[in-house]
Description:
Elements: H1 2-22, E1 27-37, H2 44-50, H3 58-69, E2 82-89
Antiparallel strand pairs: 1-2
Amino acid sequence: MKRDFLIVFSMFLTLTIGYFINTPTIELDTQNVRTVTVKAGDTVWGIASAHSNSHIDVREMVHAMKAINKLDETANLEPGSQIKVPTIKTPNNKMPVDYLAQNE
């Protein structure tokens, strides 16, 4: 019984370590931004959702957009104005993944 537990635990530990070693970390790149023209009805959250993907928390994107654009908590956007949106990168920029975001 103890031997079986050790075998299962060892397999679990091996798979867990392997997953974290091989899974790339995806980050927001606040130095390389894209500019988006605000449309009527747009919100910071909506724009962040449209330019995010399943690996990025939308809240992180919203926070980065507010910081880049120096927006306050109300963040009222005027139609026709420009807003900067951070791109999405992986370590060493080996594989840019911002193409995974929805097109404008």
